[in-house]
User: Fold this.
Amino acid sequence: MRRIRYLETTFRTQSADEVDAIQQQVRADLWPALEAGRLGVPIDAVFPISQASEAFNLMKANGHFGKIVLTHA
Assistant:
């Protein structure tokens, strides 16, 4: 999972028909889980903004799985 690759992350190279087909497939495969709240974004760590350099170091070290979140509270 650490070396996961995303392909086709932009629609600039697809025709309108291809984009429509992708949207239909996403709706069929993922939409029910999204609506039910069964899919989410994994969060690895939360840092206050004052510790942004520590958050950056974690990201730079590639030692995380999921998002690194900065908060201002």
